[in-house]
Amino acid sequence: MPVTYQQLMDLQRPNQEVSYTHKDSFLYALSVGVASGGIEESILPFVYEHRPMRTIPSMATVLMRVPVPESGIDFRGLLHGEQRLTLHRAIPAEGTLIVDAGVSEVIDKGPEKGSVVLFESRGRTPDGEPVFTTTTVLLARRDGGIGGPGGTLPAPHPVPERTPDLTVRVPTRPDASLLYRLNDDANPLHADPEVAKKAGFPAPILHGLCTYGMVCTALVRTVCEGDPARMATFDARFASPVFPGEELQVDIWRDQSVVSFRCSVPARNQVVLDHGRSELRSA
After folding, report:
1. Cβ–Cβ under 8 Å, residues 107 and 113
2. Backbone phi, then psi, for 169, in 5-degree steps?
3. How many domains, in total, are found in the chain?
4. Annotation says 274 is catalytic
5. Is residue 152 domain-resident?
6. For the residues 83-109, what does the mean pLDDT come to?
7. Residue ranges making up the domain that contains 204
8. Residue 175 appears among annotated catalytic residues
9. Per the residue annotation, which of 24, 108, 143, 190 is the catalytic one?
10. Do residue 133 and residue 196 come from a single domain?
């Protein structure tokens, strides 16, 4: 039965307990390339319990809860359009968070154009301190004309036209998608060659949120000078998939507290993450 606008807006899942250990944080950091340059002192807080432990900010996308399977959206027409992240404080390296999740907005484009569905996930400590807010923007191309309001998303963040202030090369492992799927994302598209071929890809593709995390890691190591607490927001639009083993190029522009970024695969001259924006706190 087709999904309806009201059905989506009624989809709310409050007060979910999400518990994790420092090993989960270490696995996430390794899966998004924190140690791709080798073992050095600057990366040990993200992967070694004998240092004051830190967490890559984009780990919020593992801790968030997005109830897409319960939504009734037709998966055959689903695309991940954007991911937005606000950090209210640094994410603890281990512990329990309380997560409130659900649909925050639906933009109905019409029967032939589908809908844009925004899922919001808010994580807080058990005593009520806000930790993160994520917004997952999904394009539900087979679910238009469902009785919702029209409208448009805000204009994407304009990346400066000048030469980047900094460019970082980020290698990806040939088994990157197999490693990342251990963060509780077992979609066979990222592991099974036959499933990938049926979906129109020559080989399994990297999770979009893995690319997102790799770029976040690159910003933490560069403009944040290794301190994830300096990152206040991290938003980007997905443009194209990455294949494990490809090298990424992250172009970065710094304008006071606002960092703009774009990620591409130079070997294919293909932009994979675009309109990136991150706001930084003072050191």
Report:
1. no
2. -95, 130
3. 2
4. no
5. no
6. 98
7. 166-279
8. no
9. 190
10. no
